[in-house]
Amino acid sequence: MLDEAVMEIATKEVVTVTPDTPITKAIGIMEENHFHNLVVVDERGELYLVTMHDLLLASSVHEHVGELMFKPHCIHKDTPVMDAVCELIESGQRAAPIVDDKGKLVGIVTDYDIMKRAATSKILKDVEASKIMTRNPITIHEDESIGKARSLMRKHNVGRLIVVDDEENPIGIVTEDDILKKIFKPKRRMTVGEYSGEKTPRMEQPVKSIMSSPLITADVKDSVADVAKLMQEYDIRGVPIVKNKILRGIVTRLDIMKYIADLKKGAMIEVEIHGALDEDMRILAERIIATEVRKMVKHAGRIHWIKITIKREHDKGGTPYYHITVYVKTPNKLYVGDASPKLSKTKRLEAEGEDVGYISEKQRWDFIEVLKNALISVEKQIDADRERYHPRTLGKKLREEEIE
Q1: Distance, CA of 321 to CA of 317 (rounded, Å)
Q2: Half-sphere CA count of 395, side-chain side, radius 13 A
Q3: What's the pTM?
Q4: Same domain as 32, residue 152
Q5: What's the CATH code of the domain at 247?
Q6: Are 277 and 238 part of one and the same domain?
Q7: Domain boundary at 259, 283, 309, which?
Q8: Could you report the per-residue pLDDT of 244-293, keeping only the tens digit for each?
Q9: Residue 60 vs residues 24, 25, 28: alpha-carbon distances, Å
Q10: How many Cβ atoms from other residues are within 10 Å of residue 343's Cβ?
Q11: How far apart are CA 307 and CA 329, in angstroms?
Q12: Residue 161 in contact with residue 210, Cβ under 8 Å?
């Protein structure tokens, strides 16, 4: 479960520059290699990092990268991928140099590498994109100005906007880096009068003039692994999520990395199981438990422990079935959820007029269904409490009481 060493997914041949490298040259290296980050090594062998975004914001193209570089968090080469993702998120970096025991540079890992690995993750293939997407993403009409796009990004603290047409159909995407590259630092300046003889300042030109199109999207039913694959294939940082071509949300690389970090948190919770799992369903059952526990962690914030009791019982006809109870202890409450299958009748089999015996119409999948129902029962309770005590809900109750 993303437990291989980070060196297995990292880039081993690292392109580096020195602090006295001109910004224009560094940008050229990054654009040629499709880099968003560049490792800087000084004369003492000290490691630094500089980002494309920072270079584009430089006040002068005559500056050197040494004026914009920073001391990065480095990741040890033997660190598991899941832990490396957590370290990246905590550091606020999109990339990190990989070092050996002596602190020597041996590679670099980026969010692009994480997406490449996430695209093949069996666990992420079981998670729908709709589960982690940001709903109601910020949009902008194709004819609205580039200046308004930048203003919206700053107001909502986002790095990209989805561009829509008159029917609110998503048709493109514009990022902060698009504005920086094409407006502030363009190779070919957009001049007054460039568009159909119009004399319009660059920031007042329509956002459709710099948006990326056609738009790469994913369906709400697609898995997180599918979305990560799109990001890796097209080297994009955000994928709009649609249903019947209607925009429903957006998933970014950071969303996927945060979810992976949540997997790590969920993996650290002790799950105590009393009773025997159905051996034929053990692997699937363990995957379902892991998935549902991660959801609980995401909703509850902190969980002390989880206990699952499994009892195998028999109906009046002797058919075995399972009764499962789930106990989840959070800092504020003990949640209990249980489930049993709807008992079904047995049916008689006959072959050429002879009795063959009795078999149950129930399937082994009943065990999985009961397990999921018990876990989901607790999730619903946690969700209900989260909604009940959400500041928005409490504020609404207070206003209603004041009116009364």
Answers
A1: 11
A2: 3
A3: 0.66
A4: no
A5: 3.10.580.10
A6: no
A7: 259
A8: 989 999 999 999 999 998 877 666 677 888 887 767 777 788 878 878 88
A9: 10, 13, 15
A10: 15
A11: 9
A12: no
